[in-house]
Design a protein that fits this description.
Rossmann fold, alpha+beta, eight-stranded antiparallel sheet, 15 helices, Dna Ligase, domain 1, D-amino Acid Aminotransferase, Chain A, domain 1
Length: 449
């Protein structure tokens, strides 16, 4: 593998380029008109304008991306995460074009990328799943019937893609009626498929995911878990590894269930098996993301492995190391820095006039000072990963980092992190998927009193 086209943008493109440079692999960056000045474009070996600003006219142009890869003699295409990364048709076209897709095979993406099909597969494999619908719900009338059967609150979710973009919590029939068409439309816009389904919303839940890898010989290993329970609008904003929520044999059982899930579909390359952990430490399969995750750096920090390198090696046919050789040490926390109003979480695009980062942190960013965060894409500015010998040390280093960090030109969620990371519930590690929202309500009430 001598040349890889990166079918993505921003910080994940830079992340892939960095590993490719170390491995002596040339890279091709694709970019929209709005992204032409971003650092990843100049850092790649070569670059190509792929289209206008909207994602549907640029980064989702599968045929155009593949054609550019062929014209430029790429051996492989790395999809990053989001965009086309879980698009089975794209992976299949890459394979048919005679190139390597740096990810799971197209038939696996089809099976597990479809969240409904993934639920069926896990049930057959004996992995516990969250109660929900076994088929897509095509109409609001059908959704109302199924929601009554499952019991409110429910999660209305896109079948073709993960993340908070394609899901919403519905407390009652009125909320479901209001959100149904909106979620379908977002699913179509972001994932190319408007099929949605329902799952029971588990109260007092923790969102725990396990990093897995599979190779062509059938080997599957895990690289331990990540806690992704700090969320806003159902999207993760803080992730950490290992999870402070796991005790006793639960960690072992959870990781073994993730490996079982991956083996059930003959999984290859990087994947993440996501679970919901209830207040009694029962866990349920939520979904499997057939790609590298935004939060993969915390796993790299505790294991010492480069997961992009692992992806490339597996794609080249190499075998994975034995499970017993994979050990975890230290504690890592990742913070997603967004250009957004910290009070409303609404995007705050604009010119990044100044960026001053704190010390002693790993920073994965798609921007430098002078770049512009545009309204066309996810407004994440950077991921900050802070590692310590213990969780307490990682937290202390986090406080110091945020005290030293400043971004001018756009609103950011830095004030949120400065305060929430010093809250009792976060410092205790006893938070759930509802904790951030509850903390914000408590804070607002205190300010008004």
């Amino acid at each position: 593998m001598k040349k890889i086209l990166i079918a993505n943008r921003g910080e994940i493109a830079r992340r892939i380029i960095r590993t490719c440079n170390r491995l002596g692999i040339e890279t091709i960056a694709v970019h929209s008109e709005a992204d032409g000045e971003l650092p990843y474009v100049s850092e790649a070996t070569e670059s190509v304008l792929i289209g206008p600003n909207p994602v549907v006219q640029s980064y989702l142009q599968a045929d155009k991306i593949i054609e550019q890869a062929k014209q430029r003699n790429a051996d492989a295409i790395h999809p990053g995460y989001g965009l086309l990364s879980e698009n089975a048709d794209f992976a299949r076209k890459v394979e048919e074009a005679g190139m390597i897709f740096v990810g799971p095979a197209s038939h696996i993406i089809e099976k597990m990328g479809d969240k409904i099909e993934a639920r069926r597969t896990m049930i057959a494999a004996g992995v516990p799943v969250v109660p929900g619908t076994e088929e897509g719900v095509r109409s609001l009338e059908e959704a109302v019937i199924e929601a009554k059967r499952i019991g409110y609150p429910v999660m209305l979710k896109a079948s073709a893609g993960g993340g908070g973009i394609g899901m919403v919590r519905c407390e009652n029939e009125q909320a479901l009626s209001q959100q149904f068409e909106s979620v379908k439309n977002r699913a179509k816009a972001y994932f190319g498929d408007d099929v949605v389904f329902l799952e029971k919303f588990i109260q007092t839940a923790r969102h725990i995911e396990v990093q897995v890898f599979g190779d062509a010989s059938g080997g599957v290993v895990h690289l331990f878990e990540r806690n992704c329970s700090v969320q806003r609008r159902n999207q993760k904003v803080i992730e950490e590894a290992p999870s402070p929520a796991l005790a006793g044999n639960v960690r072992t059982e959870l990781c073994e269930a993730a490996v079982q899930a991956a083996k059930a579909v003959g999984y290859t390359n990087a994947g993440t098996v996501e679970f919901i952990l209830d207040e009694d430490s029962n866990f349920y399969f939520l979904e499997m993301n057939t790609r590298l995750q935004v939060e993969h750096p915390v796993t790299e920090e505790i294991t010492g492995f480069d997961l992009v390198e692992w992806q490339i090696n597996v794609a080249r046919g190499e075998s994975l190391p034995p499970q017993e050789t994979i050990q975890a040490d230290n504690h890592a926390i990742e913070y997603r820095i967004y250009a957004e109003d910290p009070k409303t979480f609404m995007p705050s695009p604009g010119l990044l006039e100044r960026i001053t980062w704190g010390e002693d942190a790993r920073i994965e960013t798609g921007y430098e000072a002078g770049n512009r965060v545009t309204p066309f894409y996810d407004p994440m500015i950077a991921k900050v990963i802070i590692t310590g010998a213990s969780r307490e040390e990682a937290l202390n280093k986090s406080h110091e980092f945020f005290a030293q960090t400043d971004i001018a030109g756009v609103k950011t969620n830095l004030p949120l992190f400065r305060e929430f990371t010093e809250s009792q519930i976060f410092e205790a590690g006893d938070y759930t998927t509802a904790s951030l929202a509850e903390w914000l309500i408590t804070k607002k009430e205190a300010q008004q009193s």
